[in-house]
Design goal:
By secondary structure, the protein is an alpha/beta fold. The chain has 22 helices and twelve strands. The strands form two sheets. The protein has an eight-stranded mixed beta sheet, with helices on both faces. A four-stranded antiparallel beta sheet has the order 2-3-1-4. The longest helix has 59 residues. 35% of the residues are buried.
Length: 687
């Protein structure tokens, strides 16, 4: 490579990621421990929260929204969702605050009284249990007793409200029936007296078959008419009662006239009248329900649903309510209005047929008509009186036997263990979060770290092979000797490396050892390599050419004179050589008297090197960093061969790239790279 190396050019492998995690494992562990510690502190410092709950089973038929039809007895049930909305009503929480005197509770004492119900609404949750008619009420609070009391009281208030609404509905029905019974009884008595008097006066009178059929049919229609008329009156009174309850509770109230003025509602009402006329005619013609009768009844039900929907739109557009109980009253008003419209339509249909049969009967003798009229009135009033008595009895029984519509399936209890904080869950979350943040930070550090940590980086940047990886614990303060077997020193690696090095030095035994920037590892590697070569029987000369730092002085005592004095021609090489061990000589740095380039122009350094080659089998020159001292390039250019020392985790990639380019431009051969200070666990197996 001729340009600067770009780390992004190399594809990142799974092995690289794994090495990154191993290199930064202590960072990951530290962040994980910190995260877990923070979570533990939070868990133990946080106020524990307790949860109490109760489960209610509500009747599928609830009093709220029910319409008791005196003629059919049909009831419109409310949904579980509606009951949930009733429980959530703000007035219920106001009552809870009042009953439990929460203003004196330590958790609410500093809160304005009006705000306490709103605080409770946030703490209490009301939910349906699946698709059943079960409702779960639960509350979270630092006070377990308070949570239990609030949940229990809220369920009790809801049950009381439901019973009161149901009682009110039945009471209205009983009162209306009681008002109607005396009037109907009077009519029954009058009709029976009139028949008796007429029969006594004219003796018993019989009628022909046709007249009897006409009167029988007419009596049936009039009986239906009277029954529907009473139901209509009851619905009107109930509607008036509901509207009376709504009045004063809401700023706006929808009257029956509001709905009646709606053009779509009027059109549906007219259609309902026509369908009822057809139905009455078909029922008179056929004894059992035929396909035609069923079709008309289906159309009538569909029209009623449309009228109900239209009435809800009218009421919804003109009213608003924050209390679900009041909305339920509005729903009653809608149902009653639709019922009233249905009754009115049926009355119109019956009136049409009654007039028709009355016209046919008008052609009968007057005496027959009078007697038939009296008998008809008597039959109708008797039937109506009997029905009213039955309904009165049913309503009174229901009123007297009102029981709990709400069944507590699971009563609220005082919780023994807090639900928050969940220490085990928080600890697990803290651990996972810590590992995640640790890994994230490790990769961030790796991204920001521009130093060399991998063999691949060295080979791609320097275009040179790594000859050896050396661990920490270099010579300190003495060189490595094979006989010593120093702890932390892999002698086998030195043995293999020196054999390979001597192969490179076969033609030129002089080699410089340098690094992109100055490092103590340069001198440590130079000393140890020289010592190992000497141990293996080679004649070795180690020269210190780092004139500024003089790093070999840490290991030897070469004196004041050294290699600089030889270059100045003040001394010969034999005058500054210090014999350290057998076959291991050392030359110190000495002191330069002037610029090295000037000295090299004045003197022939090649003669000095030739003399070294004749006496020594290996000449190791300790050079300063390529980018820190110009002497490194000047001397390296003369000796041609260099070894580059890269310190693990310290030498920067860019520095190596620039140093390599400088050496190549100067036609200096990089024999190979020594990677030093490599952690033992990062040493490659085959390097």
């Amino acid at each position: 490579m001729n340009g600067d190396f770009n780390e992004d050019e190399r594809e990142i492998t799974l092995s690289d990621l794994w090495r990154t995690l191993l290199d930064r494992k202590w960072t990951i562990i530290a962040i994980t421990v910190i995260a877990v510690a923070i979570v533990l502190i939070y868990s133990f410092k946080t106020v524990p929260i307790y949860e109490s709950e109760t489960i209610l089973r509500v009747e599928k038929k609830s009093a709220v929204g029910q319409i008791l039809d005196i003629t059919t007895g049909e009831i419109i049930p409310s949904s579980v969702e509606e009951n949930i909305n009733i429980i959530k009503g703000h007035s219920n929480f106001v009552e809870v605050v009042k009953r439990l005197n929460l203003k004196k509770n330590e958790y609410y004492s500093n809160m304005p009284l009006k705000m306490i119900p709103f605080a409770l609404e946030k703490q209490v949750s009301v939910q349906a249990v699946g698709r059943t008619n079960l409702i779960r009420i639960k509350m979270e609070s630092p006070d377990p007793v308070l949570a239990r009391n609030v949940v229990s009281t809220l369920a009790q208030i809801y049950d009381e409200k439901m019973k009161n609404l149901e009682k009110s509905d039945y009471e209205r029905s009983v009162d209306f029936i009681k008002q109607q019974l005396p009037e109907v009884k009077t009519k029954v008595d009058k009709a029976e007296d009139a028949i008796k008097q007429m029969k006594e006066k004219y003796n018993f009178i019989t009628f022909d078959t046709k007249a009897s059929q006409l009167y029988t049919t007419l009596n049936g229609y009039k009986s239906q008419y009277d029954s529907v008329e009473i139901s209509l009156e009851e619905s009107r009174k109930k509607l008036k009662a509901v509207q009376s309850e709504l009045k004063g509770k809401e700023p706006m109230m929808v009257t029956s006239q509001t709905t009646m003025d709606n053009p779509i509602y009027k059109q549906l009402q007219s259609k309902l009248v026509d369908l009822n006329i057809q139905l009455v005619g078909l029922k008179n013609e056929y004894a059992s329900k035929t396909t035609q009768i069923k079709a008309i009844e289906a159309q009538i039900e569909n029209v009623k649903k449309q009228m109900n929907s239209e009435a809800q739109k009218v009421i919804g557009s003109e009213t608003s309510s924050v209390d679900p109980t009041y909305r339920s009253l509005y729903q009653q008003a809608i149902n009653l209005q639709v019922q009233i419209s249905g009754y009115e339509a049926k009355l119109k249909a019956l009136s049409t047929y009654i007039k028709d049969y009355q016209n046919q009967i008008a052609q009968l003798p007057q005496l027959e008509q009078n007697l038939n009229q009296l008998e008809r009135d008597s039959n109708v009033n008797n039937q109506l009186y009997t029905r009213l008595l039955q309904k009165k009895s049913d309503a009174e029984i229901a009123l007297a036997s009102i029981a709990n519509r709400t069944l507590i399936v699971e009563p609220a209890t005082i919780p023994m263990k807090p639900v928050k904080p969940n220490k085990k869950l928080n600890l697990a979350i803290g651990g996972v979060l810590g590992i995640f943040l640790g890994v994230l930070f490790a990769f961030f550090q790796e991204y920001r770290d521009k130093t060399i940590r991998r063999v691949e980086q060295v080979e791609m940047i320097s275009d040179s092979p790594i000859l050896v990886q050396l661990a920490k614990a270099f010579t300190n303060p003495k060189p490595v000797m094979l006989t010593e077997k120093k702890k932390g020193i892999d002698i086998e690696k030195y043995q293999v490396f020196t054999i390979d090095l001597m192969h490179h030095l076969s033609n030129n035994p002089i080699i410089g050892i340098t690094s992109p920037t100055s490092s103590q590892d340069i001198s440590a590697v130079s000393v140890d390599i020289s010592a190992v070569l000497a141990e293996n029987g080679y004649r070795v000369l180690l020269i210190d050419a780092d004139f500024k730092n003089k790093p070999l002085n840490r290991y030897f005592e070469p004196g004041d004179m050294g290699f600089a004095n030889v270059l100045n021609e003040e001394k010969g090489i034999e005058d500054v050589v210090m014999s350290y061990e057998k076959g291991f000589d050392v030359v110190g740095a000495g002191t330069l008297s002037e610029n090295l380039n000037v000295l090299l122009r004045k003197h022939n350094i090649d003669k000095i090197f030739d003399a070294m080659k004749e006496k020594y089998e290996a000449v190791i020159i300790n050079l300063p960093g390529v980018l820190d001292a110009y002497e490194s390039m000047v001397i390296a250019k003369r000796i041609k061969n260099t070894l580059m020392v890269i310190k693990y985790g310290e030498t920067e990639q860019k520095a190596l790239s620039i140093a390599k380019n400088k050496l190549h431009r100067a036609e200096i051969n990089i024999v190979g790279v020594i990677m030093s200070s490599v952690p033992k666990k990062r040493l490659e197996k085959y390097i």
